[in-house]
Amino acid sequence: MKLVTSFFPIQTIPLKGILFARLNNKLFRQWGKTKSLTFLLVILFNACSPSTGYLTSCSHTYYLDATAGNDNNQGTSPEEAWKSLSKIQSLDLKAGDKVLLKKGEIFTGELHIKGTGTPEKQIIIDAYGDKGNNPCIVGYDNSLYAVYVYNSTYLTIQNLEIINTGKERLPNRTGIKVHLKNYGTAHSILLKGLYIHDVNGSLVKKEGGGSGIYIVNEGEKTSIFDGLTIEDCTIRRCERNAMIWWGYSTRDFWYPNRNVVVRNNLIEEVPGDGIVPIGCDGALIEYNIMRNCTDLLPDGEYAAGIWPWSCDNTLIQYNEVSDHKAPGDAQGYDSDNNCNNTIIQYNYSHDNEGGFLLICDTGESVMPENIGTNNTIIRGNISINDGNRTQLTKSGYFSPSIHIAGPAKKTMIYNNIIHVNKKKAPEVQRCLLSITPSYGDADSTTVRDNLFYVSETSEFHLGTSTNNLFQNNYYLGDILNIPKDKTARFENETYENMIRNDLSGFESLKPFLRMINIPTGRITTVDKEAIDSFFKK
Q1: Closest CA to 370 of 325, 329, 339, 401
Q2: Distance CA 309, CA 471 (A)
Q3: What local confidence, expressed as pLDDT, does residue 243 receive?
Q4: At 534, phi and psi to the nearest 5?
Q5: Which of 78, 451, 465, 502 is at a distance of 20 to 30 A from 16, taking alpha carbons?
Q6: Does an H or E element contain 448, and which?
Q7: d(CA 411, CA 413)
């Protein structure tokens, strides 16, 4: 056994900066007594096992090539690439592992990912190669998802194209599903640079709908995301929705996700909801575009652009939403049920058939399940040509610029410009603000320092809401039922001069807007300094 005894100089075998001998000191002493090659191999295996804490030193990169790959290969080099996505399903990915799909290739099936990374060594799912488009994953005819991430942490998925189209619509079908169940806390999940398109889920919400991205956390063992980012993604022709969550949504079982960020995404040709965080605290939604919404939802379906549900402290800012056409709601933005302290600021809204804004508390359920919708702040936004519903629905032609529904409390609306152009047809509703009851009435709504402009007769409907405060607003044009406003103003020379040669506002209000290049396109949003300065004068 002389060969074995001189196999390694024990003092010089490093592993992640720690001597192998130190790591396995006891085992080496035992090996010294037995001089067994088998025992030495056990020591070597122990160095790369999870129990040592040095698993990252044994990370692997797996390659997939749909054309030249072979599932009998080792899968650990481009020359030895696997062919099928199913080879990944059996892997429990470790810190530092990578799964790389070759550019220019189309993979049919489902990519299943499960793994545990670390802050220093994330698991990476990405593309490789220097030719062709990003690799494309196409789900099976009956696939509920094309990519499925289950009970994973410290993981990045980027630079993939994802399609999931079946012969028939399928409820709950999605492009990518990220799922926690009885897991605990997942950290640092990043979805970046994905192109998700042509997902034909159900158009009916009660059936389960469908989506481009579906985030789910559930289980008796509390399972939450602490650090979930969706950025630089394009979602196109996904039905019913673009991005939607499902989590712990009632206050008697309240375990919200934290550090959720959604930014720089483009949503096009989606008929339903755009971005809907559910069961989150402190979500940040910024610099996203939703546009060119399709008119596909059946009558009785409600949807809107960007809105939280059962969330606290959501910040929605610098987004652009347009062209929403849902039969019900169809506003650009919404602070919805069971939400505290939502801020919607410096967003651009235009051409949404249902209006600019919904603030909603159904009032149907109360504590301990539903805390209500409280302390919403709406500031610094610009709405142009919203509220132009021409199709008769179950709600008639209801499409006020702002709709407050149910017993929402302590809403503050200030420093916004609501610019309403001529309606497309005589039957279209002409209303700036409608407050309607739903198991109760809105209370303590403050509307101050806004500018309301109408090009034809419009009005306010406050219903049976209580303790409203209107203060220091501009009312430009023929507006009926103006609420009691002791400091109301009925002209603004600066604004009137701005729009003199363009009453539509699309060109004339550009000094309040700014265009920004983001990775998914060019966004128009509100210039904070410009609109703040306007209202300070």
Answers
A1: 339
A2: 29
A3: 98
A4: -60, -45
A5: 78
A6: strand 446-448
A7: 7
